[in-house]
Design brief:
Elements (H helix, E strand, L loop, with lengths): L2 E6 L4 E4 L8 E3 L5 E5 L3 E5 L7 E8 L15 H13 L4 E6 L5 E14 L7 E9 L6 E7 L6 E8 L9 E3 L6 H9 L5 H7 L13 E3 L1
Helix pairs in contact: 2-3
Length: 216
């Protein structure tokens, strides 16, 4: 069965979209540039594509029903509050889609989010939300000093600015994960998988499933 999860701060907070949308629209746009050269004509410089976007349309139900696929159901305003709060931090969220022919796990930004009360079903909230894939990068800090002999500027030192990343408190299991790989990715040591198993009362470390939220 298809599942769609949204999490924040390395799975410290997460929820599953309760009602699957009728479709998941992914859009990829080219970023190529055309130039006109004398005696040659038009040439195209091929660049990496723009960050892809994804759009979801569905609703947050006030009551459970056969259309609800998530195990836990929040109130509609709680989903909305989380999405708005995570968006306003200026940090990326993670969108995970499992159980479909295309597995997806994106760090992404929330580009657009709109919602309204569903007509004919008081309490249900319809929503439209758009995401854009976030590409991680590091910023180099360069200090320029003047060379007293030549009076020319010179690069004194170059250092990388570390990426600020909070230690995760929980992790949502994704397709293909093992406790060892989760331990390596989140704690930096695959040998700590036994600690994760013990903390989550997992008798058999080989038995984990996508969507399971683990305490780290």
């Amino acid at each position: 069965m298809a599942k769609i999860y949204l999490s924040f701060n390395n799975q410290a907070e997460a929820f599953e979209f309760p009602v699957l949308p009728e479709e998941v629209e992914i859009k990829e746009s080219g970023n190529n540039k055309s130039h006109i050269l004398q005696n040659i004509g038009e040439i195209t410089v091929i660049n990496r594509i723009k960050a892809p976007t994804l759009k979801l349309e569905s609703f947050f139900p006030i009551n459970s029903g056969p259309y609800v696929t998530s195990k836990y159901l929040l109130k509609p305003n709680e989903y909305i509050e989380k999405i708005k709060r995570w968006r306003d931090t200026g940090k990326p969220v993670r969108l995970v889609i499992t159980g479909t022919s295309v597995y997806l796990s994106w760090a992404c930004t929330i580009e657009d989010f709109s919602y309204k009360e569903k007509a004919g079903a008081v309490g249900d909230i319809e929503y439209t939300i758009s995401f854009k894939e976030y590409r991680w990068f590091k910023v180099k800090k360069v200090e320029i000093v003047s060379d007293s002999k030549t009076s020319q500027p010179a690069i004194a030192k170059t250092e990388q600015r570390p990426v600020e990343k909070e230690m995760p408190k929980t992790y949502t299991v994704q397709k293909g994960d093992t406790l060892c790989s989760i331990s390596k990715k989140c704690l930096g040591d695959s040998g700590k998988y036994k600690e994760i198993a013990q903390k989550n009362h997992i008798a058999n470390p080989s038995l984990i499933y996508p969507g399971q939220v683990l305490q780290l």
